[in-house]
Design goal:
Elements lengths: L8 H13 L8 E5 L11 E7 L17 E7 L2 E7 L10 H4 L1 H9 L3 E10 L9 E9 L27 H13 L4 E8 L8 H9 L4 E3 L3 H9 L3 E11 L10 H10 L1 H11 L5
Parallel strand pairs: 1-4, 1-5, 5-9, 6-7, 7-8
Antiparallel strand pairs: 2-3, 3-4, 5-8, 6-9
Helix pairs in contact: 1-3, 4-8
Hypoxanthine binds next to strand 5, strand 8 and strand 9.
Length: 279
């Protein structure tokens, strides 16, 4: 069945889910979204099938360097997963419906858990470049909410609770695995701004005053949509750089990507160990 622009978001997501199911995502239980520079995790999945976004109806195109733009179905330590290798950002010009469309589709494919990863700037002085931070909570400073507009009750309730966005048991499981790896895992609050310009030092002082530990341009819309659908969320930030004004040097995207590459082995190992605990 084809879909048209008159179809509801739910119908469009169903159509995409059917297309993906036909390619083998029958039983995916855990979804992952890989952030800037962190896409390598999808390259060594077991029994992997990759579907370029162009082949999935309703998916937008990823325009950012370092974002592959494909969905990878496979297994991690035997657990069936579906991985979004490359995400859509609000700053690319997409509406939040488009940014979060893949999460809607993953939800309809039946995932119960979603791992959201991102590159972020560090505000907390105890952080160093390359640190991994478990997201304990977020500040939505994007000025928009992905649930704005008519609510489709097939997805979830009009006013979803956000008191526990990042699942506590998932956080415990991740801490446990980091401990076993002798990895110092940070924990903190992620603030989302729209970007694409990085922050000014004054904005970073403001974010500190608001209680943020890290800042980025993603994740929050996807986590809100996941909670709307009752999907449990784990969030991990890679601190690719210290935020503006913390160190006396400018921030650039190449550095963000390089740090992602440097943590690749540790990051992959942490995910590989944690995923079986999330299903
Ligand atoms: N600010 C916002 N987003 C980011 C940063 C930053 O410093 N680093 C990586 N993503």
């Amino acid at each position: 069945m084809e879909t048209s622009s008159k179809d509801t978001l739910y119908e469009r997501a169903e159509h995409a889910a059917r297309t993906i199911r036909a390619r083998g995502a029958e039983e995916a239980r855990v979804g992952l979204v890989l952030g800037s520079g962190l896409g390598a995790f999808a390259d060594d999945l077991e029994e992997a099938v990759a579907i370029p976004y162009e082949e999935i109806p309703g998916f937008a195109r990823s325009t950012v360097e370092g974002h592959a733009g494909r969905l990878v179905l496979g297994r991690v330590a035997g657990v069936p997963v579906v991985v979004q290798q490359g995400r859509f950002h609000f700053y690319e010009g997409y509406a939040l419906d488009e940014v979060t469309f893949p999460v809607r589709v993953l939800g309809l494919l039946g995932i119960k858990s979603l791992v959201l990863t991102n590159a972020a700037g560090g505000l907390n002085n105890s952080f160093k470049q390359g640190a991994l931070m478990l997201i304990s909570d977020h500040l939505n400073l994007m000025g928009v909410n992905p649930l704005r507009g008519a609510n489709d009750a097939r997805f979830g309730t009009r006013f979803p609770d956000m008191s526990d966005v990042y699942d506590r048991e998932f956080q415990e499981a991740t801490i446990c695995e980091a401990h076993a790896m002798k990895l110092e895992l940070k924990r903190g609050i992620y603030a989302a701004l729209t970007g694409p310009s990085y922050e000014t030092p004054a904005e970073i002082r403001m974010l500190r005053a608001l209680g943020a530990d890290a800042v980025g341009m993603s994740t929050v819309p996807e986590s809100i949509v996941a909670r709307h659908m009752g999907i449990k969320v784990l969030g991990i930030s890679c601190i690719t750089n210290m935020a503006a004004g913390v160190l006396d040097r400018p921030i650039d995207h190449a550095e963000v990507m390089e740090t992602g590459e440097q943590v690749r082995v540790t990051f992959t190992e942490l995910l590989r160990r944690t995923i079986p605990k999330l299903s």
